[in-house]
Amino acid sequence: MEDEVELVDIPSDSESVDDLCDSEAENDVQSLQKTKSATDCPLLLSAKEKEEEEEEEESEEEVEHVEKDGTWSRRNVPRTDFPFNKNSGPNIPAHAKTASEIFFCLFPDSLVEKIVEETNLYARQKNSKQEPVTKVELLVFLGINILMGIKKLPSYRDHWSSNAQLHDSYISSLMTVNRFGFFLSHLHLNNNNNEPKKGHPNYDKLYKLRPIIDTLSHTFKSCWNPGKYQSIDESMIKFKGRSSLKQYMPAKPIKRGYKSWTRSDESGFISEFQVYTGKSDSPEKQLGARIIKDLTRELVGGKLSCIF
Predict the structure, then answer these.
(1) How far is the C-alpha of 219 from the C-alpha of 128, rounded, in Å?
(2) Which long-range contacts (CB under 8 A, 24 or more apart) does 255-258 make?
(3) Are 289 and 297 in contact (CB under 8 A)?
(4) pTM of the predicted model, to two decimals?
(5) 60 forms bridges with which residues in the sheet?
(6) Contact at 8 Å (CB) between 214 and 190?
(7) Which of 28, 120, 135, 280 is packed most tightly, with the most Cβ within 10 A?
């Protein structure tokens, strides 16, 4: 006789085994989970909701702020983006085509005449027996220095060396070695007799270089229209001689030299700069903030990325 088979009801997947929740409650839970997942996942948001969230995030920006006591803090400030509608690139006359013509846009004729005048004045003050400097001769001296920066030798005197392997016939034909040495020792830009003494309100560590610094600061800004994205950073001018302005920064590729702060755009062209003259008698507070304000005072619009 065959065994009798007992039929047992097996609950389906959609039914509760212990009858703790019915089908209506289960539907409510599922709908709640769907709503929550749609809110948490930005991919399920509508395009309008996504735009509203992005506008809300972009309306504020977290920035570092200097408090009155000198401490730094972070705060959210309203973000305002000004449209950048300026042309970027060279801003030189149309007739400036050759390298020398472009050079004189940055190094104007008035500065050359100033150097000639002050160099001859200094030579007279030193009772030098050398002939007065002329404008053409000074330009030749500047050109030789540029060429020496391309063709480097251990010493500038090697260009006039009797050794055929070192001798440069082109440079030696332009100026004698003694005349070149005279320029190196007598080149001046300001009258030493008018220099304010230390402690004077107008005392300036860069007094002897002030004419060329002021001129280049003007021509650098006027001859180039910077792009939208600019940065401010430290820059080192290599120098290993003796000077109270020389800085030592072991973390930089150029470790010894003159330090300056520069503002430049993506092209690398320096639009504005300040030479660091070292610590003053009283330590300056908020030096970084002051440098950024000075170098961005003339900026209108654009985006600035400050790097220190």
Answers:
(1) 33
(2) none
(3) no
(4) 0.70
(5) 78
(6) no
(7) 120
